[in-house]
Fold each of these.
Amino acid sequence: MSDPINANPTVIDTSQLPTRLGKGSRELKPCDKLVLKILNLSLLKPADESAESDDQIPDLMSDVDSESTDDELEGADNEGIDSQEIFDLISTISDPEHPLTLAQLAVVNLEDIQVSDNAGAISEVSVKITPTITHCSLATLIGLGIRVRLERSLPARFRIRILIKEGTHQSENQVNKQLNDKERVAAACENEQLLGVILQMLSTCK
Amino acid sequence: MSGMELVAELKGHTEPAWCVAWNPTRPLLASCSTDKSVRLYTYRFPPSSSSTDVAVPIFTFLTEIPTAHKRTIRSIAWSPSGRTLVTGSFDSTVGVWEQLDERDEGIERSGAMQANDEGEDGTGEWECVTTLEGHESECKSVGYSSDGALLASCSRDKSVWVWEVQPDSDFECISVMMEHTQDVKTLAWHPKEEVRYFDLPSPILASASYDASILLFADDPDADWGPFQKLQPSLPAVDPTMASGLNSQDEQMSLAGDEAKPSSADNDDKNDEFTVPALKDPETIWSLAFSPCGMFLASGGDNGGIRIWARGLSWTDSQSSSELDRDEDDLGRLASTGGDGRILIWQVRKTSETILSSHLSSPVPKIIATIVGLQERAHEIHDINSVAWCRRSVPEEEDASSPGHARAVKMQQRTRQLLATAADDGSVKVWRAT
């Protein structure tokens, strides 16, 4: 169990590139997704990857940082956060089992993200995830990874709801209840072993 | 509508604050946090306003107990004597804290800051006198019985433990109850000791869980501690088969009415925002609070609804019945808060109407809850995790004509409008209901 999880990061690192590409041109996102999938099915290109990550990563990070600061100060620079931005934050999270990202596996999809952003007031993000198989035992872990990623990236005004897409998991209600139990999530994030796995999943985001 | 004013904003925790607790006998307010510390604040009333009831106290940071907990401190509670503080942590342990006596230890008082009405303070160093181990996973809630003889703790390991408080900070576990099928979120002791359920008086303990049920436990003299009733929002009261001393349906708690619903007259413009959501799925019950008279129990659910449960009338002994009569219709105020950032204060009244339906063995009074206080964005955009009324006690044994008694009565009157909240941004706020 621990071997595959540890073995994943290197593979995921190479698959990081295409998703970053997607972030570069937001309007063309659905097309890009297809391109990414195709790219990932074929050979990966390390040279392109390094070029892209140099360009894209700093941009993304500064974006998120400045926005969160602005929002907390109720600043005028109020760009708002949309589902595309949420997608960009979570699409490059690695699947805990496969050397692929959640977007590549279609576990997260742009159309399953809802954002209601009330600048300066309590806002909401809801993400519905689609497990690859209906008995996927890692659905909770994936959901937790998405939650941790969003909690760390989004301004504090956002309430995050992670749900299993209807009819895609046999224990849908149980998983939903766990993923949205604040106390359990807080306790899980103090479990270093679990947090270690999540950080591995998130390591491809930065 | 506001109905409340901010008295103090107390910052200091570097991580979310989970729980606040007022000391019942001394001017101390405690808070706990994911940062693994307990912070203590003291308060005093400015001398100039000493004759009026609306005096607003001044709060001052007193001390921080770093604690040795390895994870979040989720819950704190004071003993009724006000001498002992307990901490329930995600590290699965319960810490018991007492203050070294500053007079004996010769710890100097540091200035006028700590001076207060009763000549007592919390500046003496607090030390861990014992650590209670036994839970297998996160401890979620801790609490003392009303006479301080028992301590209860609960955990994600599905268990509720009852500990007997013995001299010299010794605690003996007298019962481990495993009747919940999931995470036990919170506990509440019945406020009175004269509750008579079995042949002998027994304290009553309520627990609420992720499994969407509330269990009521008592000490059965013929057996052990055990549950005598299960309450499930949206479902008729269920009589579990565990307790041997039970006879019949005569002794049941019952759901009073549907839910607490605000009267529309008080908030015409916002009425729709306060409707209690329908219960679609079994929901986690996060909080419990007994009414001061002990006849009602309020529970807070995951979808924001509050439900008020009433004792079946035959459940009570004669003493409690007379208590009910004396209380007339005013059951007191209920404060609630949550992830929506609001604090609500409800005035809860009993009506002369009663409810009797097929699943109730005896009629229960119909309850009306009216919103008398509302604070939006009480901690700005942050989740509020805890709300607590200040409840100073008046020692019963003390001579009613003694100066100490008079002081305690006065302090109780002056502090009864105060409530404190703790939020995800680590801040604690004190409010006064107006």
Amino acid sequence: MEYLIIIISAIFVSNIVLAQYLGICPFLGVSGKVSTSVGMSGAVLFVMTIATIVTWLVYQYVLLPFGITFLQTISFILIIASLVQMVEIILKKVSPPLYQALGIYLPLITTNCAIMGVALLTVAKPDFDLLKGVVFAVASALGFGLAMLLFAGIREHLDLMDVPKGMRGVPIALVTAGILALAFMGFTGLV
Amino acid sequence: MNQWKNFSKGFIKDNPVFVLLLGLCPTLAVTSSAINGLGMGLATMFVLVCSNMVISLIKNLIPDKVRIPSFIVIIASFVTIVELIMEGFAPALFEALGIFIPLIVVNCIVLGRAEGFASKQSFISSLIDGLGMGLGFAFALTLLGAVREALGNGSIFGYKFIEGDAILVFILSPGAFIVLGYLIALLNRFKKTI
């Protein structure tokens, strides 16, 4: 039950993109087509899960015991950056088809604040153990994927619409995202 | 390069938020009031100026292959400094900005200027570029925060000019997207006429 609450709240109630404003850059940047947004969401799911596990372990077993939690920003970003590189190299070797699907999105992920944000949120919650952290990370990534997919679907249709000149491109995309966020606010109070 | 042009490009022509669309996460997240927007803008500006200066000074010492990781470490050090200073001297602001202070590290505008400008230009140019871009970012965040606070709370910088309730949704997450969308649309319109 506890896990179910974590999952539902991470996907719907406090959706990482639409309610917590994390990962806006890829949300606006690569959401032009449904196919690219699926690739990006897959890459995020993959990296977010691994990054949360590693950063949680480092925080609990290195930073906390030695009393050096002020180094968490530096250590987390280094972990995430090297992890992304490592995942890229391993994927290239072990699973070329998966690498082909996710490869071009991986370098972008280092500066995706959703990854770092979820890692920071996970260690900031005192009642989270490793399993809860992983469930939270996976659910957050799924929430990211859901928002991405919905948004990409809307944008594909939006391309065919007659949008006023000044609103074309980014402004209408932002207003659309705002309306999507408004729809997601309907989930408030679910958990 | 003309230094005044270098300084002023960050405000309108190459504004990080309205034109380059970099660093949107903190832009949307912390601008529920003008003062939060200003605080975040100034914190980012500090990091931007310092990292630009340091990177332009040591750009010849960094091997090309490990340039991005080195930039990230330099930026992360300054972010940690900002974090500690803010926690010590402005705890209320630190609470309000939450995880978006450490997330300055992954703010694309800082790394973007480091990679795109400071790693190629002289110390003075980089310093001025950091100042201009940082002020442009702070200006955009303050403007967005002021509009959202005015519509959502009926106040600006905490000074209340409408009694009673206002349109609360502008302080919540949908309002952030919608206000930024319309501000960019307005700016596009305005830019065509000048």
Amino acid sequence: MIDTTKKLTPKERLAIPPQEMPAQDPIARRRNMEEVALGYSEEQARLEALRCLQCKNAPCIPSCPVRIDIPGFIAQIAEGNYKEALTILRESNLFPAICGRVCPQEVQCQSTCTVGRSLKDIDKAVSIGRLERFAADWERLHGELEVPPVKPSTGKRVAIIGSGPAGLAAAADLAKEGHQVTIFEAFHKPGGVMIYGIPEFRLPKAIVQREIEILERMGVKIITNFLVGRTRSLRDLLEKDGFDAIFIGSGAGLPKFMGIPGENLVGVFSANEYLTRANLMKAYEKGKADTPIYPAKRVAVLGGGNVAMDAARMAVRLGAEEVFVIYRRTEKEMPARVEEVAHAKEEGVIFRFLENAKRILGDEKSRVIGIECLSYQLGEPDASGRRRPVEIPGSEHVIEVDSVIVAIGNESHPLLLQTNPEIAVDKHGHIITDETGKTSMDRVYAGGDIVLGSATVILAMGQGRRAAASIHNFLMGNS
Amino acid sequence: MHRIVSKKQLSEEVFRITVEAPYIAEARKPGQFVIVQRNSDYAERIPLTIADADPIRGTITLIFQTVGKSTHKLAELEVGQYIQNILGPLGRPTHIERFGRVVCVGGGIGAAPMYPIAQAMKQAGNHLIVILGARTKELLIMEEEMRAIADELIVVTDDGSYGRKALVTEPLKELCQASPRPDCVVAIGPPIMMKFCAETTRPFGIKTIVSLNTIMIDGTGMCGGCRVTVGEETKFVCVDGPEFDGHLVDFNNMMLRLSAYKEIEQKAHEECHLEMKLKEMNSAKGKGNP
């Protein structure tokens, strides 16, 4: 046993084995929706925290989109001061229980960790995300929900469009400064992608609801079933309803399809539709939910990102016997989080790398019966630095499936732009903002996927916070 | 929360409810629809077209047919009760202009969303001809309302129980052959009816607008469940529509897509009927033994 009372040398710290994340048994979890990763025990968390070298230059901090004081909160966990650890986390991030679960730490904070570098293996970096989750869960299980202090009211009103990661992060910062914040959400429940998209088994909805509850206790008002652009225009919010500023965090929008023959057959879904039916509409609770989900035994998922992993693993849980992820490059190039890929494999998802769909085949009733694919090989690197997949002529082959889920990203949503031509957008339809998040329309700011295209929860939160800071400056007459 | 302020059963399967929805009542335009969800827990989100609105009272009117579990449950709600979620108005409004001679074809429940469109077409100065069709007299709706605004009203029933015994395409064809010809046709009804209306006008080259009611979840463009093929292109009914050029819509693909959950829906529908019957029997029993 390691003596935690005396100060450890870097060598001793590097000698502590990385703590594995306990997880539900893969066979059992194929048939339930409960969370897969179970979280560190207290002992594991403290051991993992002791692996941190407390580097003076802290290379992890600049790799975090919201610049959490990472060595600071980890030192508190090592000491057993979990509440203090959470206070440090909350200074930069109001949603540690969410980010600890869904951030791609291996390409952010953990990618620059000195421990990983010293051990010449990035997988052996300090598990910053798991520690973040531990601190947040500890409070949830042991402590009272702590509502951050709110400054006296400024009398200024801010409308936030969309209750996903960008909107919630902006709302939190603005509410703290004493502004009166109203969030408008089109769906019947707040949370955006964290509610409709990311499944229960990866991010329990109770956790998201709790984070939203904190906001409500801070005085943030949430109005659901309200589609800005249709129910009421941006201009009405500013001119008739008396909002002083608006933040648009409406998210990505229209799902992309491949543009291949057979995509409108019965049994072809966007990942958005499939996951929304399963998550938001609770289609997995058969007998209770009125929203049906297409019964499928053999499912092909097209794409290699986190959404593709979510869809594939959801299909497993909904009773598919075989689920294929079809991705045209190799595992190395896949954008999904390493942990999600590993979990998908453990659950029996079959990865078909260097293959891509050419067309979807249907029967006489237009129901999917198979997918014709081409094989690929990797050629020269392209603009993204990844080796370009090149099709192998004559390599067509058919995989028998009865459902296809397309998870290749989203196009930007045209609605707000159709109804507000004064907001400048780029050629992809993403809103153009300056470095403070300001759009070309007076008093209107934007952030998250509507600006970035398809990104991550934490990047959207970072954008929300940045815009909140400039909205605050604007409202207080500082700019 | 949206309180039901009035309710009327128009026929065995068709109900009209007026609900409080002040923002929608103010913003809605002809051709737009709403997504209705009884409650947030397990209820389905269903698209319904807006039949009328009163911006002063802040209410909208919905007319729907009980075709499955969700619509049956909706029909069970009484005046004073609430619908938890209504989102809208959704979709692009109808393009209204002074075309000249406009024929509005409303089949079955399609007469309900046709009403505000016909109204607007009339207000824009068009000569308005309305064809109302239904399987049988019982199912015919909006006759009085349409008669009040139409320059000509033609009523047909499949079984001849009321009006002329014909399908809507018969008088439509005669109108196309007559002089002056219609300048624009708007058809709303079951997919098969819209398909044949479009086929009827195609040889005459008369602009024909149809309003599609496909499977939807969010109604805001996010899921893509509502996608249809229109002139070789994939379109989303919720954001690109609901109205499209009837001559370009691939109705066969649309009808097949509408049947995606048929078996599940049928089962739920049957169970729902069974449940209603049991309730009825229980309440009858209750009355017998006070």
